[in-house]
Write a structure and sequence with these properties.
The structure is a homodimer. By secondary structure, chain A is α/β, with parallel strands linked by helices. Chain A is built from 13 helices and twelve strands. The structure holds 3-isopropylmalic acid (2 copies). One 3-isopropylmalic acid sits at the interface of chains A and B.
Amino acid sequence: SEIKKIAVIAGDGIGPEVVAEAEKVLKRTEELFGYRFETEHALFGGVAIDEKGTPLPEETLEICKKSDAVLLGAVGGPKWDSNSADLRPETGLLGIRKALGLFSNLRPAVVFDCLKDASTLKPEVLEGTDLMVVRELTGGIYFGEKFRRDTEFGQEAVDTCAYNETEIERIVRQAFEIAQKRRKKLASVDKANVLESSRLWREVVIRIAPDYPDVELEHVLVDNCAMQLLRRPSSFDVIVTENMFGDILSDEAAMLTGSIGMLSSASMGEGSFGLYEPVHGSAPDIAGQNVANPIATILSLALMFRLTFGYADAADAIEAAVAEVLDAGHRTGDIAVDKSQAISTTAMGELIVAAI
Amino acid sequence: SEIKKIAVIAGDGIGPEVVAEAEKVLKRTEELFGYRFETEHALFGGVAIDEKGTPLPEETLEICKKSDAVLLGAVGGPKWDSNSADLRPETGLLGIRKALGLFSNLRPAVVFDCLKDASTLKPEVLEGTDLMVVRELTGGIYFGEKFRRDTEFGQEAVDTCAYNETEIERIVRQAFEIAQKRRKKLASVDKANVLESSRLWREVVIRIAPDYPDVELEHVLVDNCAMQLLRRPSSFDVIVTENMFGDILSDEAAMLTGSIGMLSSASMGEGSFGLYEPVHGSAPDIAGQNVANPIATILSLALMFRLTFGYADAADAIEAAVAEVLDAGHRTGDIAVDKSQAISTTAMGELIVAAI
Ligand SMILES: CC(C)[C@H](C(=O)O)[C@@H](O)C(=O)O
Ligand SMILES: CC(C)[C@H](C(=O)O)[C@@H](O)C(=O)O
């Protein structure tokens, strides 16, 4: 079959360790399913600042652009986070999203059976929780004009939140389509009682909703959604919202499940190109110790197979292998009940590879 | 003693019913403690739209301005909420906050003993949760310039978020002072890795922190805070944040406790003037049935005694009376385990009055 190109960005902290295990899984699926991949490593984040003086070197963007998909470990750490300039829209995470046109962030929040008790929510409340936050990723206040000016009240800092109809329509249509393939429920989250950008958002949602008559739509105000996620998490299917609301709500939703260390995510643009990464961060405190859990990254690879390549057989096989290894009782330290029985990052990776 | 003036805004839905019980409590404290109050009723919200054609009539503002404090029931309902213009900064809730200079919203989130099991969180996680969200209430994106313009991508809607140093400093100082009277911990929430207004926010917090050396300060990013509230609610004491983040996080925090129907809130400006209201809404579905729980409104009155008038004895007595009535097993429908034993709004009010 055709050779697929994957840009691999290991990043910082535990990023290189978890990505290494996902690469073993990649190699194994190649052997078993006859798919062919070509990987190219690229620098991004703190390690790129150290080696190239910028978090997003031009050559990294080039490598991503000529690839079919990107696998990302994690970026950032105390060493660099103090310099928030590295996260400005021109550079870093926001920069790579904009440069690659990744306007949609898909964050499934599901409960893993083996982690049922890890949530701070009561099991009966959590029962059946399986939702997906679709977050607009390249618009809104994170990308709007920003400046300071002097006033009689000292310095004033200004951020601008803008959305146009085209931006809203493409992400909302994508969310409707995702809902059609799931439980056919969509919650559109806004603050239409106050914000002009939210009023436009809601108008667009209402205008295109008739194209998806099989999807049950509700409009939820963002403050109310923060509450409802706690009160009735299992009643949500797909949640679509703008960039900042999605940032906050997707983290809340992930934490609800108790499974945050196991969750994968996809950032998509037009077409099948996507960037895949675990929801968890770079965990600098445990970096380099061979104790991090590689499962979220391995599941991000499975998501890439499913969404970018349409290799459902390989995706299914990886997900089944993860389930099998967990069912057999193997755990890394983060999910082990008896920490003395915890296995290493590499041991977990190898068990999953063997189970595929 | 001096006569204190209280503007009473019953509002919509269950507002008039719960406010009526709080007024009985007011009268009783007058008799028992010798304080003297003069109340004046004013129209606001949906009922004002119906009777005066505007949610915030000029005479309502006048009544509030010549009062020492405002007691508010609840406003809004399906009949009016569709007209979101009524919530614009010039009118409605945002309008009254701006016109009265109420720049600070204090929302305690505590767990009531009798509702320990009502939370969706596990009891052991919730244990000891007692936090206060201090939300900036008259700045930020809810009050910034808003407009639409035509672009090649259809209409574009723009909101502006602005904060100046004076606005930030006054709310943050208030939060530090509140923390000094509590467990001396302050979490300042921002998105300083992306937003300019958040960077200024954090700069101001860092600049004034040395004036409060006894308060332990942490900076938390808003997305992380949405997670940490779920993971470790009891570790928070005071949380201070800007308007929109506070809107979202205070609702999340209130819902965490399972006690949302019992929580009171205060909106303050410079000096002792304040507007006091229950955290819950107007609950139009149960309006007029004499089943609503008046406790959150009665506790809001107690908060008024404490914060605006400095009548700690009366505040203590009201809070003790509420505890006594609950301890004796009396419940309105919302908090009753056995709904057939639920008592009415007026019965609850009278029991509390009798217990003072
Ligand atoms: C680091 C930051 C810019 C980023 C965001 O808010 O988008 C992160 O929180 C995320 O959610 O991916
Ligand atoms: C109705 C709305 C404008 C208001 C707000 O967001 O401020 C409400 O949600 C609140 O929190 O008091």
